[in-house]
Design brief:
globular; 14 helices; alpha/beta; Aldehyde Dehydrogenase, Chain A, domain 2; four-stranded parallel sheet
Length: 421
């Protein structure tokens, strides 16, 4: 069987499973999800063993440390996958929600109800925990998943998907055999083949670096939900509380550096920069952060300073590097973010309510925080359960994506021998 035939069979099986998924009720799905969670915890040793092979592959590929961190599955992350599935099971079923209801003068009764999308292809790098998160969210929303992780995570992805499928089949007689599938080949040509099958595949969600996402978006013939970069900024306003400013800045940058909601750019009002910037810089440097500072900031900090270049304002470092710019108040902050940000997540630190509300209104990003770390831009933190991704698109899903974002809708109409004049 050649690659085209292999991908076509995979997608055709997924489409058939999508039709079968509509027969499962909420109890069926929840029972299956809890069984999947139990199976993952019960087989933690086998998952770690498979992941150890992947970690060795990642090192042989000379993956950078942030990607190796994403690849690692330790006990905490395995438990996190299981707990994420249980949390999804506990959430309301998004399918069948009545979004609109109306009775027409003709006698036609209409309901607009949430419905599954169908077949969702997930393409991602490292992060084998995405396998459980994505499959679990798609299953709860009555969608079928085809998972395509990086070759460095193949063993981890395969064992997680197998455990979930086996657990689902044992827990629910109606569980579709092909509800969760992993692309069995690491051949990159499989991706354009799979994403050309518009009669079987309904949606693609890529997660990873900008290069991966752009490559997927450019080759896909099916709709793609995406974000290219996570250039997140924190703005310290003239009315910022110093302790909050330092804590939020340090957490946004250093809590985890290799993730899309980590701060990459620090903006500070020129009115408070002489007093506050040295304190913030000291706190960041204590965490090992390299600062790339504009001319005004360098003049305040003095000493051996790395000068920021124009490219730094548009860079997602995913590392202990932070671009720092002194701006002319909120006007300068908003202008900088809307010019250089990626539409992902930005935050303002201020005690001025009017300033905060203006920032949240005028910054054109999918999530805009006030006095909170950018690291909260996450499906789990939003109460969505496990997250399937973050979208910076403006049509369809935007921001962290959970269950509701994995549904579309359809109209249900009812008449009584109704005909149209």
């Amino acid at each position: 069987m050649n690659l085209t035939e292999q991908m076509t069979e995979l997608a055709r099986n997924a489409k058939a499973a999508a039709h079968q998924m509509t027969r499962l009720n909420t109890a069926d799905k929840n029972t299956s999800l809890v069984a999947m969670a139990d199976a993952i915890e019960a087989n933690a040793a086998a998952i770690r063993e498979a992941n150890a092979m992947d970690m060795e592959t990642g090192r042989s590929m000379e993956l950078p440390q942030p990607m190796l961190d994403r690849l690692l599955l330790d006990d905490s992350r395995i438990t996190g996958m299981a707990n994420g599935l249980r949390e999804v099971a506990a959430l309301p079923d998004p399918v069948g929600r009545v979004l609109d209801e109306r009775n027409r003068p003709s006698g036609l009764k209409l309901k607009k109800i949430a419905a599954p999308i169908g077949v969702v292809v997930m393409i991602y790098e490292s992060r084998p925990n995405v396998t459980a998160d994505a499959a679990g969210l798609c299953f709860k929303s009555s969608n079928v998943t085809i998972l395509r992780g990086g070759k460095e995570a193949l063993h981890s992805n395969q064992i997680i998907a197998r455990l979930m499928t086996e657990a689902g089949e044992n827990a629910c007689e109606a569980f579709p055999a092909h509800a969760i599938q992993v692309v069995p080949t690491t051949d990159r040509a499989a991706i354009p083949e799979l994403l050309s099958l518009t009669e079987f595949v309904d949606l693609c969600i890529p997660r990873g670096g900008e290069g991966l996402i752009r490559a997927v978006a450019e080759c896909s013939k099916v709709p793609v939900i995406k974000h290219y970069k996570g250039i997140c900024s924190v703005y310290l306003d003239a009315a910022a509380d110093a302790d909050k400013a330092i804590a939020i800045t340090v957490n946004s940058k250093t809590h985890r550096t290799g993730v899309c909601n980590a701060m990459e750019t620090l903006l500070i009002d020129k009115a408070i920069a002489p007093a506050l910037l040295p304190q913030v810089a000291e706190a960041l440097r204590a965490k090992g952060v390299e600062l790339r500072v504009d001319k005004t900031g360098a003049g305040i900090l003095g000493g051996d300073i790395t000068a920021a270049t124009s490219a730094d304002w548009d860079t997602e470092f995913l590392d202990l590097i932070c671009a720092v710019r002194v701006v002319d108040g909120i006007d300068g902050a908003i202008a900088h973010i809307n010019a250089h940000g990626s539409g992902h997540t930005d935050s303002i630190v201020t005690e001025n309510v009017t300033t905060a509300r203006r920032f949240q209104q005028e910054v054109d990003s999918s999530t805009v925080f006030w006095n909170a770390s950018t690291r909260f831009s996450d499906g789990g933190e939003f109460g969505m359960g496990a997250e399937i991704g973050i979208s910076t698109d403006k049509i369809g899903a935007r921001g962290p994506m959970g269950l509701e974002e994995l549904t579309t809708y359809k109209w249900i109409g009812e008449g009584n021998g109704l005909t149209r004049d």
